[in-house]
Amino acid sequence: MDAGVLGDGKTEVDWMDVGLASHTDLKRLQEGRIGGQFWSVFVECPDTKHFDDPDHAVRDTIEQIDVAKRLFAHHSTNLTYCTTSSCAISSFKSRRIASMLGAEGLHQAGSALASIRQFFLLGVRYITLTHNCDNAFATAASTVTAGGKDSGLTAFGYAAVREMNRLGMMVDLSHVSHDTMRDVLRVSRSPVMFSHSACYALAGNYRNVPDDVLRGLRENGGVVMVMFVKRFLNAVDPESADMQTAVDHIFHVADTAGWEHVGIGADFDGTVTLADGIDDVTAYPRLIQAVMERGATDAQIRGLVGENILRVWRDNEINAAAFEAAGELPVEDVWVERRFSRWDNPLPVMLPGNKKRVQAEHYV
Questions:
Q1: In Gene Ontology terms, what is one molecular function of this protein (predicted)?
Q2: Is the residue at 127 inside a domain?
Q3: CATH number of the domain that residue 31 is part of
């Protein structure tokens, strides 16, 4: 494992002190020989009736980002806060754990592209298009599971993907519906990622990735990071899911999409139902040994444990630099159902002859 960065696609932000009843702490990260990890700054889907109803998702996401970055700084002897793929490699070479940020759901952006831009400036490097709820951008897998329509990306979702590509923000397709996955693959100008998913052909849960999408990754260049949650590894008999089941999913991605398109995204501290034999981050050496025993080569192992996701990240950076060099401007789209508040005051007219100016009807 020293040959490659072990990049975990997704772990919830957690305390790092030794002895907690979690899946992750500093001692166990080192025991599991982790070289890099994306930390999820996650806020639950809001309990609102309309996507534009006021909620605290943006505020709470910023607080999560703040906590995570302070955690990285406090443990800077062992952790390196990284916002570039080259930083992750340098951190690994210095035997520190590269620590990156991902946001798990565009509901956290408050239905505004400006929030995506600001999250990028704050260090977030991937955003999951949905969590377990639809939003102004896309349909969630949970909606289809509950019997709802798979409407895929919205028009505003297409604008978000274009803007994320422009920024170099990786588009994460875990949690989204199958048609959302397909819609994104048709239009994304950069490789996508699935931060924590499994294979629909092996476990028929809409949360998982169907084979046609896996095959589409060959052209897109993206990567599926295989998770270890029991019900997504075995939809018929979840309790039987174990480490070998997880290896089955790794090999299915590799066989269908290619070894360049598979990674690891455990969902540690985002679940309590992990596959038997994968209790926490210390299980990684045993997992990699199990993959090797199935016949994976050294080069395939290096891709699995980090080189594939680093390539996806680097390609997003390269493409973003090219878009900037070409003079591409920020996407200015506004969600069609956006409701604006206004100040009922007769402000000066900025645009001469503006017939669309809203009058201050109730100003006294």
A1: metal ion binding
A2: yes
A3: 3.20.20.140
